[in-house]
Amino acid sequence: MSQETKCVVLINASPKVSEKSTSGYLSTLQAEQLKAVGLEVQRVEARQSLLPGRSETVFEAMLQADALVFTFPLYVFCLPGLLMRFLQDFAAFRSRCPEKGKDVKVYAVVNCGFPEADINREAVRVIKNFSKKMNYFFRFGVQIGGGGMLSSAPNTPFVKKSMAVLNDAFKLMAEDILNCGENPLEDISVAVKFPRRLYYFMGHKGWFSAAKKNGLKKKDLYRKPYA
Fold it and tell me: Are 14 and 27 contacting, i.e. CB atoms less than 8 angstroms apart?
């Protein structure tokens, strides 16, 4: 008798609608590695679950999954508000169906605009605590620094090595979902090897350019409307 194919649901929790999303790019890389080992993959957008009539379809798919992969950007050193709402709604939905969604493995993939990957550690811990509350099995997190560079310039010399580490992390994820390991694995950090000062200089230029496109001046970026 052939073994039943395992199903993985990839949750892209980027709030972006029409813009290019690093989290979406990372989900595509995950899907490639997972499908390569014969896993069934279903991709969902967390923001779509907020639309009328969409949440139950998304949550039901998650209850049927063998593994869940949450991929999202770091917002103010934590999860986007969209994802927090998504997790709360899913927990409430599952409480009505406690017999479903057992023995589920959970993974977190977090990317940030800072060059230091470990800044994502607390966000990974939130997903870990959520998994514990749901009686799921948190396996490991992938912490990514300089995520925007990975998606915008994956073939440049200074990004290729980081991309190799990232792909290895997703291969490990695929193997872990297939296997029956019980002990959690160590979190994996992926950072682009790029001069820190130059990285921040380019980042500042990017903010100034975005401000100009939106009719703002450089000084407007330093306003404190909350003060």
Answer: no
- pTM (predicted TM-score): 0.88
CA distance 20 to 122: 25
Tens-place pLDDT, residues 73-112? 999 889 999 999 999 999 999 998 777 767 899 999 999 9
Beta bridge partners of 110: 72, 143
- Answer for the pair 147, 73: CB distance below 8 angstroms, yes or no: yes
Name beta bridge partners: 143: 110, 189
N- to C-terminal Cα separation, the chain: 66
Report H helices in the chain.
Answer: 22-36, 55-63, 81-95, 121-133, 147-152, 157-178, 196-213
> Tokens standing for 69?
């992969």
> What does the block give as tokens for 204?
């500042």
CA distance 150 to 161: 10
CB contact at 8 A, 80 and 13: yes
What secondary structure letter does DSSP report for 154? T
All residues at 6 or more sequence positions from 60 whose CB lies less than 8 Å from its CB, including other chains? none
